[in-house]
Design goal:
Blueprint (H helix, E strand, L loop, with lengths): L7 E4 L4 E7 L4 H13 L1 E7 L5 H12 L3 E4 L3 E7 L11 E2 L4 H12 L4 E5 L10 H9 L3 E4 H4 L1 E7 L7 E3 L5 H11 L5 E5 L7 H5 L7 E4 L2 E5 L8 E3 L4 H13 L4 E8 L6 H9 L2 E10 L2 E9 L7 E2 L11 H10 L1 E6 L12 H11 L3 E5 L2 E7 L10 E4 L4 H12 L5 E4 L11 H8 E2 L1
Parallel strand pairs: 2-15, 3-14, 6-7, 10-11, 18-19, 22-23
Antiparallel strand pairs: 1-23, 2-24, 3-5, 4-5, 7-9, 8-9, 11-13, 12-13, 15-17, 16-17, 19-21, 20-21
Helix pairs in contact: 1-2, 3-6, 4-6, 8-10, 8-12, 10-11, 10-12
The structure holds shikimate-3-phosphate.
Shikimate-3-phosphate (S3P) binds next to α6.
């Protein structure tokens, strides 16, 4: 499932980004809409669903679990029969590259009285699963996996769960959501307390499906419930996809770009706060709300940036924007330092190592640390070997797209190798970039 994204991006520098664009639907919200629609009773209608490989994996998983799903183009309809309507899958479920799919499904299936086996690609099978397996076992699920249960494939014999009060050592929406989804099948109340607030889409969406959710500070609780009711979900544009264009328009002089209908949930928009501190000109216009999610048009005009210190507290609010923040920091005047971001080591790639290597290929001095990076900005265009730069994506969609943005601000041409991974979150990225770039 690699969609139609080319195997390599051949890029030339742009002078500026201009006009109005729309980015595809939010990946996190798309997964949750499918999962809750499949767990509810009745027909859930989803508008704006992302058709990236990761979400297609979640859709395929629920088809295997006996849920009928109709993709009518503009609207995707999910015919749910409640949690009790899910059926034992007749084969291993392969979730490809998608960490959100495997961890959230592990949570949901931990409560179902049948056997499920979840796996994924080489990258996913190397990512830590103990962070969800541990609390799910405490709730009573029987889960096995390689490395004592820390690595997929995960073998889940679900059912018989009891609610727990879990204090998570990481600020992770995947961990929080896995435990809350298991909590729907558990006896009593299940709560998760996290060290910092991670994206809160699950707890925002659950009440729309009829679940009872309570929040007190960093603690969120859900009551066991097999009476979820279908509803309609309108998925806003993905802020994490918009982020590439926000940085591109900021660093390319003369740019003036508006990205329509972007989800700007405050648990996601740490990048805007940091870029503004660096001197960026970003405005949120025509703010509205849909299903508890704030949506806005994001207007970005270019501005000279200066380096900044990114404090650990803001990291959960911009965890997926780190690769492209590195490109903004590279174009800024002075030094940018990120700390408290060791989670970046266990994403689709080791993003600290991947971005240190990518920055160096663009002639930017960068030093990595176990939990972050220090970047010496060039105060303008990027460099490296202008006669023909070759960059590798590290098999990571966000590294590939960040390198493509850096290429717009560099002299000469750039080839980014191994870019099929971009299909996981943003299949139309290259066409959209070409439509907004003026040379
Ligand atoms: C996601 C949560 C984040 C994020 C990922 C999507 C989600 O992961 O990096 O891209 O949809 O819940 P963690 O929860 O592991 O931080």
């Amino acid at each position: 499932m690699t969609g139609s994204v080319p195997a390599r991006f051949v890029l030339k520098a742009a002078r500026r980004l201009e006009g109005e664009i729309v980015v595809p639907g939010d990946k996190s919200i798309s997964h949750r809409a499918v999962i809750l629609g499949a767990a509810a009773r009745g027909t859930t209608e989803i508008r704006g669903l992302l058709r990236g490989d990761d979400v297609l994996r979640t859709l395929a998983a629920f088809r295997r679990l006996g849920v009928s799903i109709h993709d009518g183009g503009e609207i995707v309809r999910i015919e749910g029969h409640g949690l009790n309507g899910l059926r034992e899958p007749d084969d291993v479920i392969d979730l490809g590259n998608s960490g959100t799919s495997i961890r959230l499904l592990a949570g949901l299936l931990a409560g179902r009285p049948f056997l499920s086996i979840l796996t994924g690609d080489d990258s996913l099978r190397g990512r830590p699963m103990g962070r969800v397996v541990d609390p799910l076992r405490r709730m009573g699920a029987r889960i096995d996996g390689r490395g004592g249960g820390n690595l997929a494939p995960l073998v889940i014999r679900g059912g018989g769960l009891r609610g727990i009060s879990y204090v998570s050592p990481v600020a992770s929406a995947q961990v929080k959501s896995a435990v809350l989804l298991a909590g729907l099948s558990a006896e009593g109340e299940t709560s998760v307390t996290e060290p910092g607030l991670s994206r809160d889409h699950t707890e925002k969406m659950l009440p729309a499906f009829g679940a009872s959710v309570r929040r007190e500070g960093l603690k969120v609780s859900v009551e066991g419930c097999d009476r979820l009711k279908a509803c309609s979900v309108d998925v806003p544009g993905d802020f994490s996809s918009a982020a590439f264009f926000i940085v591109g328009a900021t660093i390319l002089p003369g740019s003036d770009l508006t990205i329509r209908r972007v989800g700007v949930n405050p648990t996601r928009t740490g990048l805007i706060d940091i870029l503004r501190q660096m001197g960026a000109r970003i405005e949120l216009e025509s703010m509205t709300e849909t299903g508890g999610e704030v949506v806005a048009d994001v207007r970005v005009r270019s501005a000279p940036l200066k380096g900044v210190r990114v404090a650990p507290e803001i990291v959960p609010r911009m965890i997926d924007e780190f690769p492209v923040l590195c490109i903004a920091a590279a174009a800024a005047e002075g030094e940018t330092a990120v700390t408290g971001a060791s989670e970046l080591r266990v994403k689709e790639s080791d993003r600290i190592a991947a971005m240190t290597g990518t920055l160096r290929a663009f002639g930017v001095q960068a030093e990595d640390a176990p939990d972050g990076i220090r970047i010496h900005g060039r105060g303008g265009g990027l460099g490296g070997d202008a006669s023909g730069r070759r960059i590798h994506s590290y098999g990571d969609h966000r590294v590939a797209m960040s390198a493509a943005i850096a290429a717009q601000a560099a002299q000469g041409g750039t080839v980014v190798e191994d870019t099929a991974c971009v299909a996981t979150s943003f299949p139309g990225f290259l066409d959209l970039l070409e439509s907004a770039a003026r040379s």
